[in-house]
Amino acid sequence: MTDLTTTDTAVGGTAEANGQADPRLPAAPDTIAVYTDLNCSFAHVAIHRLHETRRRLGLDGRIRFDLRAFPLELFNREVNARPGVDSEISVLGALEPDAGWRLWQGPDWTYPVTTLPALEAVHAAKSQSWHASEQLDRALRRAFWAQGRCISQRHVILEVAEETRAVDVAALAEVFDSGTARPAIMAQYESARDGRVDCSPHLFLHDGTDSANPGIRARWVNGDFGTGYPVIDEDRPETYEKLLTRAAALL
Known about the structure:
With 251 residues, the protein is α+β, with helices and mostly antiparallel strands. It has helices at residues 41-56, 72-76, 82-95, 116-124, 130-145, 154-164, 169-178, 182-192, 238-249; strands at 16-17, 20-21, 31-36, 64-69, 202-204, 210-212, 216-221, 229-235. It has one domain: Glutaredoxin (3-Layer(aba) Sandwich). It contains 9 helices and 8 strands. A hairpin with a 7-residue loop joins strand 7 and strand 8 (229-235).
């Protein structure tokens, strides 16, 4: 199920532990580490707000997003259930309509059963550039949420990559098919386990600042994920401006 935990932005709370660098933190001040899953509606809102706020603040090319895997299917040991995902669309879609949303229109057997291949592709694209990885990540989210495409499938992932015009698809396919991205995905999963990363999305800055489900406080009503539906108790989109401004101050 999607984790709805949210925390206020903490400053410097995760910088180092026992003299060892915290693996959750980005390697450079110009980077924000973003733990998400691709079929998490709260993450879809977060990624949209990150991109739009960065553009509005004139920080394109200065602040980069290191998209990391928070694979809900591994944490929950089951597929992220379609009834729960569907219940979130009208609620989260109302927060950011321009992110792109639509209820799944295809047959049930075409619904994505895993996001691991797509998460691997996003990581594999980093070997080309941060921009390629960011654009593929955002395009895969729109392909799933707005276009109803099965992003579990290799050919769909590569088609989406081609559509970005930011990704060298042949090079992506070579890295993706080699399987060399899977260890990185599992390492990101390990770094997030045992409560070290609260939920999808959870952001980390180089100085240890972190924010889980930034600006949003939510709860489930009439049952848990897959039975009930989410209610947004608080939404503060200005949190993204604060996070990006702080990241820029580290440069």
